[in-house]
Amino acid sequence: MKRFAGFLYKEIYHIIRDMRTLIVLIGMPVVQLLLFGYVLTNEIKDAKIAILDHSKDEVTSELTQKFLSSGYFKLSRELQSENEINTLFQEGDIKEVIVFEEDFARKFEKDGNAKIQIINDASEPNTANLLVNYTNAIISDYVRQSNRTSTAAPGIIPEVQMAYNANLKGVFMFVPGIIAMLLILISALMTSITITREKELGTMEVLLVSPLRPFQIVLGKVAPYILIAFINVVIILLVSNIVFHVPVRGSVVLLLAESTLYIITALSLGILISTITNSQQVAMMLSLIGLMLPTIMLSGFIYPVENMPLPLQIICQLMPPKWFIIIIKNIMLKGVGFTYVWKETLVLLGMTAFFITLSVKKFKNRLE
Amino acid sequence: MEKNAVIAENLSKSFKKVNAVKSVSFGIGKGELFGFIGPDGAGKSTLFRMLVTLLLPDEGKASISGLDVVSDFRKVRNILGYMPGKFSLYQDLTVEQNLNFYATIFGTTVKENYHLIKDIYVQIEPFKNRLAGNLSGGMKQKLALSCALIHKPEVLVLDEPTTGVDAVSRKEFWEMLGRLKHEGITILVSTPYMDEAILCDRVALIQDGSILRIDKPDEITKSFGKPVFAVKSDRTHDLILDLKSFRGVEAANLFGNQVHVVMNNSDVDAGQITTFLKEKGQTSLDVREIEAGIEDCFIDLMINKS
Predict the structure, then answer these.
(1) Of A199, B40, B153, B187, which residue is least crowded by CB atoms under 10 Å?
(2) CATH homologous superfamily of domain B4-221?
(3) d(CA A166, CA A169)
């Protein structure tokens, strides 16, 4: 035990001595979060729209008012005829045109089938998609509030529900993804580097010849990073809550426990990488390309898994971050308890056990 | 010598294409200072790594203090001090932290065995708060030796400890090894420098994975049996070529500023060589018969083996 403590101290000295890396490790999550939250956000403000109102009645003016006061849209032009729409889009300034059909108010109140045409400049598909969603949300909101219809289903527009992120805040979606990505980065990358560094320096030879057991070496290597990664989770949660008002609706304890499980998954991946290679550079490349990229691309963090071709979907199921993101989204945004995420937790637990067994088996007692 | 502290029997190890160590056997007595002398790539490091339980031998066995290096490897690791070819120091830790670290992982303290490393450590103690990475080569070597010694190993294995270290530090280092021997520690040391061979109790000349000869250094030189001449002139390069054309010359090699010539018969004297060289146009000649050195013996063994 004393031996292990001595080893652990040494690892802590290494980390403290390399202050710059430590600052990067602690500071990076904040920077990333702010980047994703502010700069790379897919929220839209003041998108320029044009309105073609064939009806010009009470309902259309109310709806128009609602659109414009939402903050998402800004009225650029009022159109008189459909012919103008094409040239307008070609100019490229206008992102969306909303067309009310004739006799809108009457059809809405009596028949419940008033039609709104929403035309988008889909050369930017993501923006177009978002704008449609915003528009839909505003319309259905109006329908719900107006209450003037006697018909059960007014049916102007198919209802689009923006559940759990009523304001469509991008940062809500990013926070779980960022946690998943950063934990992989810190845990896997740093462990694989710290172990391969000993191999490169030749100190691993002496460590192996010493009475220290391999599992003590590995544990001593990863223990400090568990702590650092855990601190990171806390920082990310705090910053996202204070700056972006991202809530943690579920249990914080459960969230932190699941995060710790995921940290251990990532660490075991890092150990696995370090058993494959003897060079720090290879370890770094493997961690970045083999772990970071898939975490961003295949975990559902940015691209929805359901839209991928089947082979990729299968690969996605094998990505630990995919399951972790589901878990924390559920806990943070839906506020559910363990009974709703136990399946995903079990998957993650299985993966962790698999990777730990594999890496301990592969971590050799000798040089070959 | 007392009973053998290190025994190797027909140790062999090959990597993909190279037979690094070929059926090597030896016995090293307790408290002996034993040198493995051979050029780079001779298989010294591979041999040492098998002895210190880092590599598994393909064939043969080895034991340290009676403990098999394969089956009892955990016990072996407790009684072994090992200093690999690269000084195994943590560059970003201080001198003191390095030493304390190695003491702790071997379950001891610096205080407990301070007497062992005292002679060495006093020289680096003034720099104990300096990072190991900022030490000079000789200092690093002394620190690495202290780290390998701090748990009072029964057997100390030093892989090329003097490579890349200045001449003064090399000399001091060998003096330290001499003192450690008196503590009863068995020392195995490898080196590519043949002049260090005479500082060992016994040496094994090793080349291409095989041991050419094991003996006391003076026995090796005594049993050489061929006349050796040291020749000096002011045109050293031509000198070797000229000498090789002389009858009965087995080898002519440059040693510093002179050429050592080994003859295959003893009916030649210095005068004959001088006359021959003068005919070749060499000037400022100095030819003397000398005792064979360990290097002459080693080169001779290498030539006659191949």
Answers:
(1) B40
(2) P-loop containing nucleotide triphosphate hydrolases (3.40.50.300)
(3) 8
